[in-house]
Amino acid sequence: MNIVIIGSGFAGLMAALGASRLRHEKGVSPDELAITVVSPAPETVIRPRLYERNPEQMVAPLTELFAATDINYHQGSVETIDSVASAITVVAADGTSATLAYDRLVLAAGSDGFTPPIPGLAEFGFAATQMAEAVALDRHLHALAQKPASTARNTVVVGGAGFTGLEVATELPGRLREIMGEDADIRVIIVDRSEHVAPAMGTDPRPFIEERLRTLGVETRLNVGIGALDENGVTLGNGERIETATVIWSAGMRASPLTAQLPAERDNLGRVIVERDLRVPGRSQIFATGDTAKARTDTAGNYAAMSCQHARRLGAFAGHNAAADLLGEPTLPYDQPVYVTCLDLGPDNAIFTRGWDSKVEITGAQAKAVKKEINEVWIYPPNAERTAAYEHVLAARTIDF
Questions:
Q1: What angle (nearest 5°) sits at the alpha carbon of residue 279, between those of residues 258 and 23?
Q2: Is 0.90 surpassed by the pTM of this model?
Q3: Which end of the chain is more exposed for a tag (fewer CB within 10 A), N or C?
């Protein structure tokens, strides 16, 4: 018997550990039940930190952890999923391909940033949702210091006033002054079609967020979108022209295009609408998890968000259920009734909220300390010792923030 897991991000890693843990508990050997992770590299990119300095360092290697937990690894990118033949095609970096058969498949291929057809965005825009994008942006920001001072050089436009856009925008003033000098006249502008910043977070956190933006000198242009980009700036939908050499797009994510290869209903973000145990309807051998799954979190009608907070727990359930299904054990209905957010708001500030209505619990330096703990400790993979890995998965299924 074998389980193949597509992806080594938060959901894929936790799926592998969840399956390994159940296998160990039931006294099943790796020869009887093989677990194989497939991804371009044996690592987890810590995507929630890609807005920070030195994004190339936001990677956690997994080779030792996989070895310690008897998890196999196959390097490459999945090109096709044949749900009838129960096999996937994997293409290596050198272009060679291999076919891997599976008894159970866990799709944990994650998501990508959504780039709308705004004229000039693909040619002149930047992003920080993937490692390569974040590194390219970081190099661009450092290269600005070699250019003559000008309004365009010193101005950054961030497209999107949601969670990612706010974390990017509030990090930039300090980051740019480190690069260009403390006396540089830095200007950061957030543009969004919404009426308010952080529209998904509701009204409770809004006054604090707005005050932080004012304190940092971050400007906003709301109720308007970016109409077009060129090499010298952007034109907004209302005709306003902003001279800038840096436009960072942060508005929206879409599930991996691999979800389109499954004969299942998807939502407007490309996520497969899964059953309670994360199984793909009509394909009992396949489970979807993380950003590829639209999964109900509770009995109140809430669904998992595209976030590492949900991906980790989704992954643990998917891996457990894939193994349980093969071992004749009952699968578990996914649930995640606790929902919190911790929004970074600059070098010394953050805001922590609880619940789907985002009730503010902690702000300021205390919330920043929580954010630092989340970013630098909680979301990283466990160490390579087998026992620690199993305990980590158990915690992921029961933790109450």
A1: 105
A2: yes
A3: C
